[in-house]
Write a structure and sequence with these properties.
The chain has 27 helices and 21 strands. It comes from Synaphobranchus kaupii (Kaup's arrowtooth eel).
């Protein structure tokens, strides 16, 4: 045997492993050609290879083997092995946080140590999955190799043991169950003893498989459409109708050949200054001091976006500045604040910091006119943007400090008050897969109007919001309600958020004696042995882990159901909407620097955070790749049935099929219209009650919550009121919290609407018949059923492919409508408070100009008077605006569905131009797309 795990014989093009015939094939450099058998490096058993296999063979089980460690990994791929290898190779080179990449990037390892070879070909995806699980068990690659634990394996054992816990769901990690699993001599899982394998406590088999499958499908889709594009270049025609048909087809195909992920995935980090957000981001991206933390103070006003640089190997910083007009407006307000009152409260301190940062200490003594013309800043281009490239993170960090740091050094010029957003792009960040953007949301309030708008806009974009807080500042129910009801209230109804994650930071800051005393813990409780080398370290470690688990339990008990109701309403079947982590960025950094540490790497939970990001990425990628594969499948099926129709001289209009499907389309549009009309009626009733409640309660609510809040010292509160008016009724304060008069006035209307979860049910992510998405899903299943496709696939290939094309056009339309629904959903939800803002706007502007003695009282009286005189018409106007926005959406959806699908039916079922006689053969591409759809469980063919 030339290499452990492989058996080499002199087979003559019989069963075995062979190199492909392509010159320079990178995959073949890692294949040990000539073997007709392979060996398990865990058990020593040998197995025969029964087919002729190369890197070009699709639907195969394969093994990755390490030359140095001799460990093996069993994988499967529905595409060609060559493409799967390319994905593994790219992952290793990009140092992504994944099992294979981690192993071959570990000490003394490299890509050169990787061997890959196919061992078996399957007939379809079902058999492929079954055979993968078989070989994982047989070769013992879970306990003695690089494989993760498939959910099926764990579930089988739990059912045998009578354990009904939902392992593998968001409530727990599948891999943790490996502590009680092993493989017996027959390759079957048992529960006899604990198996320690740190790798398997980090990654999810299901997530990893989805990511690999998406990558494979995307590669196949790109190859298929590129091949089609090349074949179409030689097609010609004479008639004008044919030329139009051909050019339209080429344009669609050209667009698909240039595919790249479009949607960015925003993760917003929300927490007070000092909570450890910057340190957390530094740890996640594995950069020591990318963002200011610790002794340096990060700015409380600048939005910082951190993402992967997919264009180059450089570190990139893009600074976006506020406009000159915005700064002059803000500066006038800052000067007025300092001139008007000497009280050193939060707002005055902010004004001093901003003026001092830009104009120095002497700027505090100057008036507005003197400051405006005081200094020019060549560092700020006329375009309002500045972009740099750097070779190292250290260079980038040093260069952008003055734009995001607020602690001023002697003689140093700072620019953070003039900065709107900083975008940092990193070339080497395993955690930040393409499209992921971490957003460090400012931790305190700001009097700037444009930054308030950015805050709301940014929250509306976030798919996930991370609430970051120090461990020793436990989240109370009062604080939780404040966060959900004020700061984050629009991320569900008026945003894209579908996950909220709570992160407790600085877990290594602990007093073991206090923990022992508070919880009455003994050495036995903490699993501390009497004879250990470093008892003090072990005690601290044990206390940290004990507190972490308790804290996560407490956080889940406090927030999980609240989060579910907040994001999903009463949706029963849901998963992935809530997570809790306890992290130590400091311990993670010490481990990376090989310094003394208390916690092990996994115990810092930073690796879990990276996996958490990957799961979010995969959930978005699956949808995007499915949409792309559906589009490609539609184009190719269109070409295929066009060629078949020409070959068989079939030029009928398929009028009967058109009539049948048109009737089903009309019925669906009627169903959609009726469902939305029912929602409209319910919304109308809710808003009617809400309008009456708002009219009745508005003076009291405005006074008690905003104008004269109870239990609050009113000294200097006039500055808050002026900031509120300056920002059109909305102000986010670092100490007071969010002060929003528009929402306070419209809150009774929102409450009545939310009592029935009307908004979340209608626009929810679930597939119930009450939601728009549920109606679309039902239509997709019923319009062209799987049974109908199967019937025509056997009896009428040309008609079958026409129906496939219609289905792909239907999927494409649903995708387009879902994006429009999301956009309009935000407009509809915010329309109530936006309408109140518009009614109050002139009064806000007038109040912002009130100065002098008794300014607070004058502002309060003016706002109260406006509310009283406008309340009857103001809330009716807000109600009508929301109802109109919803009615417009209903009309748009029904018309788009009817118009676009009718066009697709006509295109698919009408005749093909007569002189397009040389359309290319696309059978190979059709088979590729069938495999892709099969692997993604995409119901197209």
């Amino acid at each position: 045997m030339a290499e452990a795990g492989l058996s080499f014989q002199n087979a003559d093009n019989g069963a075995g492993i062979y190199k492909c015939k392509a010159k320079g094939c990178i995959c073949c450099r890692h294949i040990w050609a000539g073997a007709d058998a392979f060996q398990s490096t865990a058990t020593g058993k040998q197995y025969s290879i029964k087919k002729y296999l190369t890197c070009k063979t699709p639907i195969v089980i394969y093994i990755i083997q390490c030359k140095k460690c001799k460990v093996q990994y069993v994988g499967k791929t529905s595409t060609k092995l060559q493409k799967r290898f390319n994905n593994h190779r790219s992952s290793i080179r990009m140092r992504e946080h994944r099992p294979i990449s981690d192993h071959f990037n570990s000490d003394d390892h490299s890509l050169d140590d990787l061997i890959i070879y196919p061992i078996e070909q399957a007939k379809d995806s079902t058999e492929l999955h079954e055979r993968e699980l078989y070989w994982i068990r047989k070769l013992e690659t879970i306990t003695k190799g690089l494989n993760l634990v498939p959910f099926e394996c764990v579930r089988e054992q739990q059912l045998d043991a009578g354990d009904e816990r939902p392992v593998g769901s968001a409530e727990g990690r599948v891999q943790e169950s490996m502590e009680s699993l092993q493989l017996d001599g027959n390759g079957e899982l048992t529960t006899k003893r604990k198996v320690k394998n740190k790798r398997q406590s980090l990654f999810s088999y299901e997530t990893e498989e989805l990511l690999l499958t998406c990558n494979d499908a995307l590669e196949d889709g790109k190859q298929a459409i590129s091949q089609i594009y090349t074949k179409l270049q030689s097609v010609s025609c004479r008639e004008e109708q044919s030329k139009t048909f051909l050019e339209t087809l080429k344009m669609k195909i050209s667009h698909l050949t240039e595919y790249s992920p479009k949607e960015k995935i925003y993760i917003g980090l929300f927490g007070k200054t000092g909570a450890g957000k910057s340190s957390l981001i530094n740890a996640i991206v594995n950069e020591n001091q990318l963002l200011p933390s610790g002794s340096m103070r990060a700015c409380t006003s600048v939005f910082v976006h951190v993402q992967a640089n997919t264009d180059s190997k450089k570190y990139k910083a893009d600074i976006e500045f506020i406009s000159t007009e915005d700064w002059r407006s803000e500066l006038q307000y800052l000067v007025d604040l300092l001139k008007e009152n000497a009280e050193d409260d939060e707002m005055v301190q902010m004004a001093k910091e901003k003026i001092r940062a830009i104009y120095g200490e002497e700027g505090l003594k100057k008036n507005y006119r003197e400051l405006v013309g005081a200094r020019a800043f060549p560092e700020i281009p006329a375009s309002g943007r500045r972009t740099w490239d750097f070779d190292t993170a250290e260079e980038l960090s040093q260069s952008i400090e003055c734009y995001i740091r607020s602690d001023k050094r002697p003689g140093e010029q700072l620019f953070w008050p003039l900065v709107k957003r900083v975008t940092i792009s990193l070339p080497k960040s395993p955690a930040l897969l393409e499209g992921i953007v971490l957003v460090d949301l400012p931790g305190a309030g700001d009097v700037s109007k444009h930054r308030s708008e950015m805050w709301k806009e940014c929250l509306g974009q976030c798919s996930s919001v991370w609430i970051v807080n120090e461990t020793n500042r436990a989240l109370s129910e009062k604080v939780a309600n404040e966060i959900f009801d004020k700061s984050l209230r629009t991320v569900a109804g008026g945003g894209e958020c579908h996950n909220i994650t709570f992160i407790a930071t600085k877990t290594d800051v602990i007093n073991p004696e206090e923990i022992r005393r508070n919880y009455h813990l003994t050495d036995e409780d903490l699993d501390i042995e009497s004879k250990i080398v470093d008892p003090e370290r072990r005690e601290k470690q044990a206390c940290i882990l004990f507190r972490n688990e308790r804290l996560k339990e407490d956080i889940s008990a406090l927030l999980k159901e609240k989060t579910k109701k907040f994001l999903l309403g009463d949706e029963e079947h849901s998963d992935g909407f809530f997570d809790a982590f306890t992290v130590s960025s400091e311990q993670f950094k010490r481990i990376a620097q090989k310094k003394s540490n208390v916690l092990e790497l996994n115990e810092t939970e930073l690796p879990y955070m990276e996996e958490h990001i990957k799961k979010l990425y995969v959930s978005h990628s699956v949808k995007e790749v499915k949409d792309y594969i559906s589009d490609v499948s539609g184009i190719i099926s269109h070409l295929h049935f066009s060629k078949d129709a020409l070959r068989s001289k079939v030029q009928s209009s398929h009028s009967q099929e058109f009539i049948r499907l048109k009737k089903k389309l009309n019925d669906m549009c009627t169903t959609l219209k009726e469902a939305l009309s029912k929602v409209y009626t319910e919304l109308q009733d809710c808003l009617l009650m809400g309008t009456r409640a708002a009219q009745k309660a508005c003076p009291r609510n405005a006074t008690e919550s905003v104008l004269e809040p109870t239990g609050r010292d009113n000294r200097g509160y006039h500055k808050t009121l002026k900031a509120l008016c300056r920002n059109d009724g909305y102000y986010r304060s670092g100490t007071v919290g969010v002060v929003d008069l528009n929402y306070t006035l419209s809150e009774p209307m929102y409450k009545k609407m939310n009592e029935k979860n009307l908004f979340l049910t209608t626009f929810g992510s679930g597939c119930s018949r009450a939601s728009i998405k549920g109606i679309f899903s039902s239509f997709l299943v019923d319009f062209i059923s799987k049974e109908l496709l199967n019937e025509h696939m056997k009896n009428n290939t040309e008609k079958y492919l026409r129906l496939v094309y219609i289905r792909t056009e239907q999927i494409k339309l649903h995708k387009k409508l879902e994006k429009e629904i999301l956009k309009r959903k935000k407009q509809i939800y915010n329309s109530l408070s936006d309408s109140i803002r518009d009614t109050m706007k002139q009064t806000y502007q007038e109040c912002s100009g009130i100065h002098g003695k008794f300014a607070a009282r004058k502002i309060q009286e003016k706002l109260t008077d406006k509310i009283e005189t406008s309340k009857n018409a103001m809330f009716l106007k807000a109600r009508d605006k929301m109802l109109k926005e919803f009615s417009n959406l209903q009309k748009f959806l029904v018309e788009e569905m009817e118009t676009q699908m009718t066009t697709s039916l006509k295109l698919a079922l009408n005749q093909i131009p007569d002189d397009l006689t040389d359309l290319p053969d696309v059978k190979e591409e059709i088979e590729m797309m069938k495999r892709c759809c099969d692997s993604l469980d995409l119901q197209v063919f």
